[in-house]
Structures are given as C-alpha cells and as structure tokens.
Please model this.
Amino acid sequence: MLWIATSEVVLPNLPMPEFERSGKLNEARVRMRKRHELRKPRWGLTLSGGVPMPDYGDAGVRLMFVQHRVFRDYRLWTLEQLALATSHLLGPNEPMQAGETTMFSTYWDGVVTRDFAVVVTASHVLVLRIDSLDGQPRWVSLAAHPRDVRIELHSGWLGYGPTLRVSSQSGQWAIRGYQRVFRPEPVLQAWHHAATANA
Model:
C-alpha cells in the first residue's frame, strides 16, 4: 500500500447519507435551534441577594431531553458519514467496523463541539477531522495500523463526558461524547480485535 502523508489527504464532498436524504437531519437542525432557545436563561438573584444566577425553570428538563435527541441524531448522521469517508479512503473491501464522533457541549457556554471522529477497520485506525457542526469529515489526521495505535476510555470530569483518547507516535486526539449518547465500547472492541489480528 502507498502511504500518503495524512496532512495531504483532503476528502472531497461525500455522497449524501441516508439520514440526510430522509429529511431527519433537517428535523435535527430544527431541534438544535430549539436547544439554543431553551438555553437562554432568565436571570434572577440568589437567595442571599448576591450574584445573579441563571434560572432555567422548567426549561432545564426540556433542554435535557431535546439535547439528548439532537446529539443522538447528529451522532447517527456522523456515523453514516464516517462509513462513506472510510469507503472513499480505503475502498469497499475494508469497511468501517466501528466509529465514534465527538459530540458534546460544555455546561457553562453550551457551545456544541463536533470536530474529530475515530474509525476502526480490520486493518486501520483513522482519525478524521470534521469541518463544522453541520459539515462532513474533511481531513485525515491519522491513518495507522491498529497495533501502532492506543485507544483508551476516560470517564468524564469538569463538565466533559466520557472520552476516547487515541494516541500514536504522530499525536493524540480526544473524542469526547455526551454521557447517554456516546458508545465507546464497539470502537474499543474493534480496535482490540484488529490489533490482535494484525500483530
């Protein structure tokens, strides 16, 4: 196989995934806008009359459910994109066996991050960089044999959900997720299997 420096690999526009063709992505985008509206707090004073604090009232519960559904939908769309990107990069004979994407927001600013994703195939681990929240995987940050990569699961802390840390000689990437949406186990299992098979 001819290896190309990953910094030179830029993915073209990928075909539209089924999730997008079905109109489900447009529905998810509407919910994402609703999520932004629900995050706008009413401001009140603390009981001691001190620092103003956000008061979400009943909207806090609705925000939690809307955010869960939005993140789940964006994750499903991204997994379809990752499968298409993997097929483009490695050909139809080496499909994606497992993948996961960054999809989280911090509590204090609510900004949604969807920037890196990891893919495991029978012979490769890929880390792909996504061009925007509503974009597609665009750049290859890592392409390596599974035995040359380490993938570890870290529990969430300081407002972050669980994290898959992908590391190799060329760098380290954090794939962070939302607690009830993130599914790291298939990635870890596929990586362990591929690394053992290719040892």
The domain at 16-197 is CATH 2.30.29.30 (PH-domain like). The chain has one domain: 16-197. The first strand starts at residue 42 and ends at 45.
